[in-house]
């Protein structure tokens, strides 16, 4: 499958998928851990959600936790949904690849989004994370458990996923100035996701 089809696939299938997305927030323990570790700016945490989707349930939860939320998504239908679901957040229609907002954030999320990029594009994301990270900012993202390409499904369409080897993610994070705080491969309590938590060293 062509990875360039990911954004058109979300344009086509995303709104219907979002309407049926599991809203039990199985992600909550990892979100809470990341929020606990993230620094505050003027008493609040600034959060950048890369590949934010429709904003429910994660965006809603972050706003309930008094975060200042910026969502970025390359799919116009998805970011338009995000803007309606969480109108107090900032919604940006943009591609995370090469993103440069000129702002710093205390928590950066790439939850169920980074793995839609090619391995080559993922290797370049360390610079994007670093460019938006405040001192001691926390980074939370998901990948596959090992290097390779996998084809999933959304609606009636195939959907591209790719991952690097965990050791390569560790190296890339280190080079970008992040220390790995934890890696949970195929975490059963979170739907089998492989979860990374890291923090900027300074």
From TrEMBL:
This is Methyltransferase domain protein. InterPro entries: Methyltransf_25, SAM-dependent_MTases_sf. PANTHER family: TRANS-ACONITATE 2-METHYLTRANSFERASE (PTHR43861:SF1), TRANS-ACONITATE 2-METHYLTRANSFERASE-RELATED (PTHR43861). It comes from Rubellimicrobium thermophilum DSM 16684. It comes from the Bacteria. Residues 47-132 form the Methyltransferase domain. One of its GO terms (molecular function) is methyltransferase activity. One of its GO terms (biological process) is methylation. SUPFAM superfamilies: S-adenosyl-L-methionine-dependent methyltransferases. Pfam families: Methyltransf_25 (PF13649). CDD domains: AdoMet_MTases.
């Amino acid at each position: 499958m062509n990875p360039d089809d990911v954004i058109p696939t979300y344009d086509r299938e995303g709104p219907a998928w979002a309407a049926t997305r599991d809203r039990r927030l199985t992600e909550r323990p990892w979100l809470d851990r990341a929020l606990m570790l993230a620094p505050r700016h003027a008493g609040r945490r600034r959060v950048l959600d890369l590949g934010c989707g429709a904003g429910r349930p994660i965006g809603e939860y972050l706003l309930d936790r008094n975060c200042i939320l910026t969502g970025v998504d390359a799919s116009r239908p998805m970011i338009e949904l995000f803007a309606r679901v969480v109108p107090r957040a900032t919604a940006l229609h943009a591609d995370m690849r090469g993103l440069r907002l000129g702002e710093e954030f205390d928590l950066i999320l790439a939850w169920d989004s980074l793995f839609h990029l090619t391995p080559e594009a993922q290797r370049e994301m360390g610079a994007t994370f670093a460019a938006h990270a405040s001192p001691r900012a926390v980074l939370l993202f998901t990948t596959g458990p090992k290097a390779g390409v996998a084809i999933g499904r959304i609606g009636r369409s195939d959907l591209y996923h790719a991952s690097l080897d965990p050791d390569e993610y560790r190296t890339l994070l280190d080079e970008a100035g992040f220390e790995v705080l934890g890696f949970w491969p195929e975490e059963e309590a979170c739907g089998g996701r492989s979860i990374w938590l890291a923090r900027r060293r300074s």
